[in-house]
Write the C-alpha cells for this entry.
Amino acid sequence: MNGDRHFNKQFLCACLDQDHYRFQPSTWKQLLELQISLNDTLHVLRHGSIDEEPEFDATLGHWRFTAHGKSVDEKELTITFAFVETEGVLILTIAE
Amino acid sequence: MRCGCGEQTTVIRGDYLFVESGLSNVTLHGVELLKCDECGSLTPVLSEINKLMQVIAEALVLKPSQLTGKEVRYLRKYIGFTGEQFGKKLGLTKEHVSRMENEKYPVGTQTDRLIRYVAISASSNLESQMERLFDRLEAIKDEKLQARIEINPATGSVEYAAA
C-alpha cells in the first residue's frame, strides 16, 4: 500500500477501527500546543475528506496523504498520514 | 527515534501523565516512553489507542465521584457530539455545556448522572457498562473530588486515587 498513491477511505477507517495507527512522537506535543484532542483527530480522519494528490516522501519512501475536516467542535483541522506497510500501521501527524 | 527537537531519544519504561487525552488527572502506568537526551521531554509510545480511550471513557462513567468539566468534555467528544447536540440531550444550552466544561458552572448532581447515561447510550463501546453504572449510582460521591485515575494500558486495569 505504501507504493500506492491512491488511498481508500474504507481502508483508512479499517486501520483506525482496528487500532492500526500511531502518532509521530512530535504529534503528541502538537496536540497539546494546538489544543486538539485525540477524539478530534480521529473524528477528522473518519468524517473528513482525503486529498486526491498525495505527496511522495522520498526520505521515508512512502506516500503522504492529507485529510481535511472538522473536529467534534467544528474546528477546521488538517492531518497528514502515511501507511507503513512493513508495520501495517498508519502514522499520523497534525498539519499546521 | 528522534525527539521533536531533533535530538536522539532513549527508550525507558515508566508512568506518564496523559494530558494529551484532554484530562489532567489520568496517569498511565508502565508505558514505553521516549526520553530526549537533550531537552529531557518524555513522549509516550502508545499502541491500541482506541482501547486506551475506551478504558478512559469507562473509567469516567464509573467514576466514584462527580465528573469535572474536563471529564464531561472528554465524554462528549468521545461520543462525537457537538456542544449543541450534547446540550439538547441534557436539556441545556450549548453555552451552558461550554461553561460547565470550562468549570465556570458546576456539574450538578442530576446532570452528572445524566451525562453518564447519555455517554453510555450513545456509544456501543460503553453500553456494556450500563448495569455496572446502575449498581454504583448510589455510591457516587457528590463532593467535587479531584480524583486521580490510574490506568495500566497493558491490562486495562483502572484505579481511582485521591489527588
Remarks:
- Chain A has a mean pLDDT of 82.
- The interface with chain B takes residues 16-17, 19, 21-23, 25-26, 28-29, 31-32, 37-40, 43, 72-74 of chain A (CB under 8 Å).
